[in-house]
């Protein structure tokens, strides 16, 4: 087993450096845009080469499509494909590092099978954890948008009541916000930029709905598109009804987050309880 692991380690290292020399600077321009967003970028050229050479995107389309859908939600349609490729490249790099590390540690321990199987387990679990983390990022982004949306709707109601058009109200919501880096404001800012560029209003709102990929945003854009031409009380009444629903949704999200925070505290509390029991009980046991 030790000889086989040694040969496998040397083979992986030789193939990696061979591919690095072959790829050269082919993917340098692509990688430059993602240096601060993904890990193990030093291995990205080889991983991207393997993706293209083995046609991984085409062969595992059904699985990768789910990742790409998350990237569309996080980064939009324009760069979703590039982000998906870089994410898959990162997964391949992590798998290669885990396999190489497993072989090396097993060699150092003179063929210990426990270390070998633990290493293989990590090789499987780390990519799964990375995909799970991506899903959590998408979920957190959606929750942030849903949390901020009721406030935006209320501002639009006040501004429209004051005599401004829906377009002007959206622009004012973006320009007067206190947190320009929030997910919803970033999307609205892009929407406002399209409006200023004289793109059709209905197309701009449809793009916003597709980009966010959230049912409540779709209801918000549909409500505006159905009523903004009429204006007056119809739009205000529709937005007020929507605002009430969104505030209830926000309360539910806040309640869920509170319950999750409470559940995360259970394990540390158990550890503290065990530690206290040991500190209190050990002297009593020694005396007995």
Automatic annotation (TrEMBL):
GO CC entries: plasma membrane
Subcellular location: Cell membrane
Transmembrane segments: 87-108, 114-132, 265-285
UniProt keyword list: Cell membrane, Membrane, Transmembrane, Transmembrane helix
Keyword check for Repeat: no
Membrane topology, as annotated: Multi-pass membrane protein
Type II secretion system protein GspF domain sequence ranges: 156-283
Stated name of the protein: Type II secretion protein F
Species this protein is from: Oceanobacillus chungangensis
Lineage of producing organism: Bacteria, Bacillati, Bacillota, Bacilli, Bacillales
């Amino acid at each position: 087993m030790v000889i086989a692991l040694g040969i496998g380690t040397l083979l992986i290292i030789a193939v990696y450096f061979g591919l690095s020399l072959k790829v050269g600077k082919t993917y340098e321009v692509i990688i430059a845009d993602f240096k601060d967003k993904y890990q193990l970028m030093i291995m990205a050229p080889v991983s991207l080469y393997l993706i293209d050479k083995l046609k991984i995107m085409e062969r595992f389309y059904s699985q990768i499509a789910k990742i790409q859908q998350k990237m569309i939600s996080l980064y939009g349609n324009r760069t979703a494909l590039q982000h998906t490729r870089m994410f898959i490249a990162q997964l391949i790099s992590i798998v290669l590092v885990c396999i190489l590390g497993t072989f090396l540690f097993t060699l150092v321990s003179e063929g210990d099978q426990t270390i070998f199987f633990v290493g293989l387990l990590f090789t499987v679990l780390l990519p799964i954890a990375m995909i799970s983390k991506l899903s959590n990022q998408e979920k957190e982004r959606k929750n942030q948008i849903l949390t901020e949306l009721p406030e935006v709707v209320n501002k639009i109601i006040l501004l429209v009541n004051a005599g401004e058009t829906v377009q002007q109200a959206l622009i004012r919501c973006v320009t007067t916000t206190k947190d320009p880096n929030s997910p919803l404001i970033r999307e609205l800012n892009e929407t406002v930029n399209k409006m200023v560029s004289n793109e059709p209003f209905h197309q701009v709102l449809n793009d916003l709905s597709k980009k966010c990929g959230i049912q409540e945003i779709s209801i918000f854009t549909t409500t505006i598109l159905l009523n903004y031409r009429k204006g007056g009380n119809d739009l205000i009444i529709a937005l007020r009804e929507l605002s009430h629903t969104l505030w209830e949704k926000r309360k539910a999200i806040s309640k869920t987050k509170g319950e999750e925070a409470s559940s995360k505290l259970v394990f540390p509390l158990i550890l503290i309880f065990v530690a206290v029991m040991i500190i209190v009980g050990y002297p009593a046991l020694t005396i007995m």
